[in-house]
C-alpha cells in the first residue's frame, strides 16, 4: 500500500498533468481557426501542442510501474520530436536555416538521439533484466534525455538571440515556453541521474511546465502579443536577483563543504565547519557592501532593462527630496545637491552659485564637510561658458586630457586646481534657468564609477533645469520678501519722520513765542523744560538711527588709511582682545567717517562672535591697486548658506533687538567708495572680513623713480 506522502504526490501529479492536458488541448482547439497568426509554422505548432497534451494525459493515466508504461516514453519522444520540427520551421521562417550551417546537423543529431533512445528503451522493455542491468539502463535512459533537453535549450537560445530586432517580439513568448518546458526536464533528469532513482516528488510537478507552455503560447497568439511584456520594477528585480545570488552562494558553499567532508579524512568535520564559518563571514561582509550593491544595480540596468533609469521612480524620489519641508528638513541648497546626487548614487556633493562679482562661490554642501573651498571657487568665465553650452563636465576625462581639454573647449573653460586635486570630485552639472546659470553642482565619486552616456546626460540636464527653476523661484520669493520688509521699514520711518516733524514744530513755536515773551521768567522756565524734553527725545531718536544710513557717502577724498585704522583701535582700546597685527602707511580714496563706521561694525561683530579670551586681528596692507583691511576672528563662524542668503540681507539679525541692516549698510558704504567687501567663514573656526578700497596714488607704489619724500606718508 502506498504511504500517505507518496499518495499525496501521486494525486497532485495526476491533477497537474490533467490540467496541463486540458490547457494544451483547449489551446490547440482555440488556435485552429487562428493558426495563420503563426504564419507557416501554425500547423506544426498545433500538432506539437496536441502531442504534448497526449503526453500529459499518458503520464496521468500510466504511473510508474503500470502496464503500458512504454506509451509514456513514446509520447515524450514524440513531444520532443514535434517541438524540434517546430524550432526548425521557426529558423526557416526567419531565413536562418540556410545561413546558419550548424542548425540542420544539430537538429538531425537530436532527432537521431531521440529515435535511438526510444528504440533502445522499447527493446529493453521486452527483455528480462536483473537489478544491475536495470540500473545501467536507467542511467542510459536519463543520459539520452539530458542530451535532448540540453540540445533543445541551446536551439531555443540561438533561435531568440540570433533573431533580428523585428522578429524578436514574435518569438519572445514561444521561446520562453519551450525553454521552461526543457529547463524543468533538465533539472528533473539531472536530479534523477545524481540520485540514481526517479524523483517522484519533482516529477509530479511536470504538469506545471505544460500549463506554463500553454499560457505562453496563448500570449503569443493574442492580438496584442507584441505589447505584452513582463515589466517588473527595478526594486523587485534587484531584490530577486540579490536573493538568487545569495541562494547560489549558499548552495555552492554547502556543496564545497560536503566535498570537504568527504576529502578531509580524520579532520573532515573540523574542515567542513571551518569552511562554513569562513564562507559565512565573507558573505556577511561582502554581500551587504555598497560596492557590491552598486555593481549589481549597474549590471541589472545594463542587461535586464532597455533604459538605465526607472524614470517614474526617479521622478518620485526627486519630488520627495526637493519638496520635503518642516522644521527638520534640510535647507534648499542641500536638498538640491541631494536630489542631483541620488540620480548617480553619489555619496556627497557641493552647490556653487554665482556671487556678486560673477565668480562661483560655495552655497551649500551635502555630506562633504572635509573639503576646503576658496572664496572664489570657480572664475566668472565659467558662468558664461555653462550658460552657453550647458556642458556636463566629467572631471576624470579632464584630468586624463589635461591642457588638451582646455584647447578643445571653445569657451575657454578652466577647471580650478583645487577641484582637480580633489580626487573625490567626479562631475560638474550646471543648473541653467532661461539661459542664466543659477548654480553648479559638484558630484562626488560613487562607489561604482562608470562613464556617462546619452541617457545620463539627458536625465541630468532635465533635473538640472528643474532644480534651477526651484532656485530661481526661491530667489524671487526672497526678493519679494525683502521688498516687503523695505516697505515695512518705510512705514516705520514715516512714524519717525512724524516724531521729528512734531519736534520741529515745537522748536518753531518756541522760537516765535520767545520773540514775544523772552523777558518773562515764567516763559523762560517753561522754555527750558520744553527744550530739555525735546532734546532728550531727539538724542534718543538719533542714538537709535545713528548706525543706519542709506549707504551713501558725502564725499570721497584722499585719506590716510593708517589713521582710520588707529581711530578704530582707539574706539576699542578698552578691549585688549582687539589686536593690530600690521598697518602699512597707505593713501586711499575714501570717506574717513564711512570707512571708520564700516570697520567699527566689523570689529564689533567679531567681538560679539568670539569668546572674551579669543583675539580679533585687524590689519592694513597693500593688495595690488587697492588697500586691504582685514578683520579676522576665531569665533563661532557662519555657514555658507547663511553667508550667501542672510548675512547681507536687510532686517535679518541674529541679535536680540537688532535692526538687521548693519552688514547690509557696511557693504553698501564700501560699494559707494568704489570698494569691495568679501567674507570667508567656517562654522566653528571663525570668519575673515576683507575690505578693499582703491589707493589714492597707486603709481607711487609701483614706480621706483618717484623720490621717497614725495611718497604718501
TrEMBL record:
PROSITE patterns with a match to the protein in the record: HIS_KIN (PS50109)
Keywords, in A-Z order: ATP-binding, Kinase, Membrane, Nucleotide-binding, Transferase, Transmembrane, Transmembrane helix
Coiled-coil segments: none
Pfam families documented for this protein: GAF, HATPase_c
Every Histidine kinase domain range: 495-697
Transmembrane regions listed in the UniProt entry: 12-32, 44-65, 103-120, 140-161, 173-196, 202-221, 241-261, 267-287
Reaction catalyzed: ATP + protein L-histidine = ADP + protein N-phospho-L-histidine
Domain of life: Bacteria
MF annotations from Gene Ontology: ATP binding; protein histidine kinase activity
Entry's EC annotation: 2.7.13.3
SMART domains: HATPase_c
Name this protein carries in UniProt: histidine kinase
